[in-house]
Amino acid sequence: FTLGIDSYTISVQDYELQNDACDDARSIASLPYQLADTTVGAQPDFTVDTCGVDASANGVWYTYTPTETKTIRVFVERTSGTGSATLTYLRVFTGNECGSLSCLTYYGGHYSGDSSATFVGQAGVTYKFLVSPKEFTLGIDSYTISVGEQ
Predict the structure, then answer these.
(1) In what order do the strands lie in the sheet with 127-133?
(2) For residues 117 and 141, what is the distance between their CA atoms, to the nearest angstrom?
(3) Are strands 88-94 and 70-80 parallel, antiparallel or unpaired?
(4) pLDDT confidence tier of residue 2, bands split at 50, 70 and 90
(5) How many CB atoms lie under 10 A from the CB of residue 58?
(6) How does pLDDT run across 99-140, given as a tens digit for each residue?
(7) Alpha-carbon distance 114 to 101, whole Å?
(8) Which of 94, 124, 110 is closest to 25 using CA atoms?
(9) Does residue 115 contact residue 90 with C-beta atoms inside 8 Å?
(10) What is the bridge-based pairing of β-strands 60-64 and 142-149?
């Protein structure tokens, strides 16, 4: 039995997410903000468990600095992922330098795949949001992140 194929070519390309690393966090200029995004192709963010983040978790980053003090709500709705019980984790950090962030809060998600956090954002303080699955072995193919005033 032959297929009649003499040769074939496989092409592999690197896929790099714009906001895969903390230093490359996607900037949120104003509220309300909403974006459909993915963690596909993201690499692990930490070498040790941090702020409820499994060291092997692969996430993507966003950053926002409010110009006035206000209550902020971040909501992540998983729209597809590996397995029906994939937990979407949302972490909120403060700080300008990615090597010295402070954990403000984290939410380990609900089995619906959604996650949210509400906090008082202080004027002039930089907040970093990390969206990831609980651990590397589970993936969030796509989700929508919404950030607004409470």
Answers:
(1) 26-27, 60-64, 127-133, 88-94, 102-107
(2) 21
(3) unpaired
(4) low
(5) 22
(6) 889 999 988 766 667 889 999 999 999 999 999 876 655 556
(7) 24
(8) 94
(9) yes
(10) unpaired
Q: Is the pLDDT of residue 57 over 70?
A: yes
- pLDDT of 135 reads 60
DSSP lists the bridge partners of residue 93 as: 103, 128
Of 41, 144, 138, 39, residue with least CA distance to 82: 138
Distance, in Å, from the CA atom of 106 to the CA atom of 53, rounded to the nearest integer, reads: 9
Amino acid in the structure at residue 69: T
Whether residue 145 contacts residue 35, with contact meaning beta carbons closer than 8 Å, is answered with yes
Beta strands in 20-126 (DSSP E): 26-27, 33-37, 60-64, 70-80, 88-94, 102-107, 115-121
Here the tokens at position 6 are 């003499």
| Residue 49: closest CA among 117, 108, 96, 112 | 108
**Is the peptide bond prior to 66 cis by the omega test (within 30 degrees of 0)?**
no
Tracing tokens 């692990």 back to the chain, one arrives at 44
- Taking residues 15-29, what's their average pLDDT? 86
Closest CA relative to residue 133, chosen from 50, 21, 39, 24: 39
